[in-house]
Amino acid sequence: MLDFDDRADAGRRLAERLDGLRGQDAVVLGLPRGGVPVAFEVARELRAPLDVIVVRKLGVPFQPELAMGAIGEGGVLIVNDEIIRHTGVGEADVVDAQRREQAELDVRVERFRRGRPRVEVSGRTAVIVDDGVATGATARAACEVARAQGARRVVLAVPVGSPDTIAGLRRIADDVVCLMEPELFFAVGQWYREFGQTSDGEVVELLERAATPPASARHDADPAAPPDPGTPPDPAHPGGATNPGGSADPGKIANLGGGAHPAGATNPSEASGPAADDPPAVDEEVWIDGGFVELTGHLTVPARATGVVAFAHGSGSSRHSPRNRLVAAGLNRAGLGTLLFDLLTTGEELDRGNVFDIGMLAARLVAATGWLRDRPETAGARIGYFGASTGAAAALWAAAEPGADIAAVVSRGGRPDLAERRLGDVRAPTLLIVGGADRQVLGLNQLAQERMRCPTQLTVVPGATHLFEEPGALQAVTDHARDWFLAHLR
């Protein structure tokens, strides 16, 4: 099975499978950012207009990783009634989330289109293109938004995707075209030889090129006019980007490596700790026996590491969570090993009840802990847990198991109330980190601290909301977690 050279190569191959749509009044809609270079090639081959489809998921107020709906341009609102019923969210919560995400959607639309109008999809075939799908949450939202905008037919086209996720998306789109559905699917980036981050500048340039008619089509061709849209931008300098390896979105978290290295390469000038100057002894994709299922993850162990932290992500997230990967990178720089892994398989994630089955999630974390202790590289190392949201409940539950021997636990914006009956059994020193503006979750953590009998500390990051998206907030989380683990894992 051949890998794709890059997103442009993937787009050209995808276009061959979509050739039947040529002349069918189709509109190609790229999911920014990574889907746009793929979509550019598809639109060029189909001779169809290219646009972006900008969607924003609406997170449950006390569980933002869990989507209760989505919004799109033109006032489109999609609501997941099942999640609304399960969580007890009220209409006012939906309205608040819609207002908040609408502001971000408007900013992104202006950033990408630069004042150009949206290409109309009503009554046409909407071909939604991304560079691949893992969980498929954004692709699902995009398909629903395009349909709500009046698309006659919705086609989802991706170069590669998880088989379970693709199966679920076939129930949402009218047609799904996926070139590769490998059984051993771990991340979109593993199927590309080059999978660098797509910048905002590259998205803008590709849209501008697609909107500019070729010189042969102009009545008054100007030799100094912009180049033919059939010539894609130089990937080494997409759109004049000056920081291709970082985030082009101020205040947001950069993609730290496209999935192949969740701990991400970091700026050497920021390195600290005894192992910071040494290459990691282990930095690889791993498979963990979770009982009846095989769990996928990424293990990074710096040279001479004395402790390893297993990450338990929150609902709607995965081992590719940019927040957890950023924290993991900080721990690696301090000389600590990290294991980021998925608590659920892609198929299990489709059943939202599994997200709140804390006992099952904790059992998976216990299995991963045993796996770590059996590996030669981590045998004898002290083990800690870092849990976010519902993952924090799983971490506390697992740490409460008899004989768990967990050295330390850190909770970021956690839901310890979901492990309430096990809190008194936790023996590991526990740090509870909560955003100062995340008042509901702060109250839940204060109550949990009162019920715990182990050494605990509640640290509030001033002004931070649940996802710690404010400038400097996530770095504060990383610093607090690093110091806590260094104090207890060595």
Verbal overview:
- With 490 residues, the chain is of the alpha/beta class.
- The chain is built from 13 helices and 16 strands.
- The protein has helices at residues 7-17, 35-46, 81-87, 91-113, 137-148, 163-169, 200-211, 322-333, 346-349, 358-374, 390-399, 439-451, 473-488; strands spanning 26-30, 50-52, 55-60, 63-72, 76-79, 125-129, 153-160, 175-180, 282-289, 294-301, 307-312, 337-341, 382-388, 408-412, 430-435, 456-461.
- α2 runs parallel beside α7 (200-211).
- 52% of the residues are buried.
- Mean pLDDT is 83; it is low at 215-276.
- Into which percentage range does the β-strand content fall? 15-25%
Low-confidence stretches: 215-276
User: Major β-sheet, in short?
Assistant: 8 strands, mixed
Determine the fraction of residues in helical runs and give it as a percent range.
25-40%
- Global shape: globular
Overall mean pLDDT stands at 83
Which strand order do you get reading across the main beta sheet?
9-10-12-11-13-14-15-16
Keywords:
32% helix, eight-stranded mixed beta sheet, alpha/beta
Task: Provide a concise account of the structure shown.
Helices cover 32% and strands 20% of the residues. The protein is of the alpha/beta class and 490 residues long.
SSE inventory with pairings:
Layout: H1 7-17, E1 26-30, H2 35-46, E2 50-52, E3 55-60, E4 63-72, E5 76-79, H3 81-87, H4 91-113, E6 125-129, H5 137-148, E7 153-160, H6 163-169, E8 175-180, H7 200-211, E9 282-289, E10 294-301, E11 307-312, H8 322-333, E12 337-341, H9 346-349, H10 358-374, E13 382-388, H11 390-399, E14 408-412, E15 430-435, H12 439-451, E16 456-461, H13 473-488
Parallel strand pairs: 1-2, 1-6, 6-7, 7-8, 11-12, 11-13, 13-14, 14-15, 15-16
Antiparallel strand pairs: 3-4, 4-5, 9-10, 10-12
Helix pairs in contact: 1-2, 2-7, 8-13, 10-11
